[in-house]
Specification:
28% of the residues lie in helices and 40% in strands. By secondary structure, it is of the alpha+beta class. A five-stranded mixed β-sheet has the order 4-1-3-2-5, with helices on one face. The termini are far apart.
Length: 90
């Protein structure tokens, strides 16, 4: 079980990116949160099995639609947290 802090840059706000992320996480059985940051990035905290997280990251890099454009994905491993689901915040 791993916990990643993921920062996504590009055209990722106002294009359904948080909902896309939520659906991916739900389908993969991941726990955590996704939220917009004031600087235009999206912050994801995703926790789950390594294999599921690898597939999740691959899909995040592709983005949800032609309207979104992911230009950079930063990933940092963190300590495990106590999540019971995956939620969209703010």
């Amino acid at each position: 079980m791993l916990n990643y802090l993921i920062l996504v840059s590009g055209r990722v706000q106002g294009v359904g990116f948080r909902y896309f992320t939520w659906q991916l996480a739900k389908d993969a059985g991941l726990m955590g949160t996704v939220r917009n940051l004031d600087d235009g990035r999206v912050e994801i905290v995703a926790q789950g099995p390594a294999k599921a997280l690898r597939q999740f990251l691959f899909s995040i890099k592709a983005g949800p639609s032609p309207y979104a454009k992911v230009t950079k994905v930063q990933v940092k491993e963190q300590n495990l947290a106590d999540f019971s689901s995956f939620e969209i915040t703010n």
